[in-house]
Amino acid sequence: GKFAGGVRADMKRRYPLYLTDFTDAFRGGNAQISLASILFLFFACISPALAFGSLFSEATEKQVGVVETILATAICGIMYSLFSGQ
User: Fold this and answer.
1) Which residue of 16, 25, 52, 59 lies most exposed, with the fewest beta carbons within 10 A?
2) Are 33 and 24 in contact (CB under 8 A)?
3) Contact 53, 70 (CB under 8 A)
4) How far apart are CA 86 and CA 68, in angstroms?
5) How far apart are CA 55 and CA 61, in angstroms?
């Protein structure tokens, strides 16, 4: 097979459904549950980023700090949510 052939085939097959994967969460009475989950995960992800960011700031003499840690966490979270096999 080709390099990442299965992933390519899966993305091609799922492409028409990507938009509904995001919008279905807020339809049919699911908005409150979805919003609660989103807020919970936001605070669950931001807390360690703040804690480790302050530690990194001290350890690297402020070359890497809270803002960089939050940005790195956000980029990784976005990439994971877009490319994970959900």
Assistant:
1) 16
2) no
3) yes
4) 28
5) 10
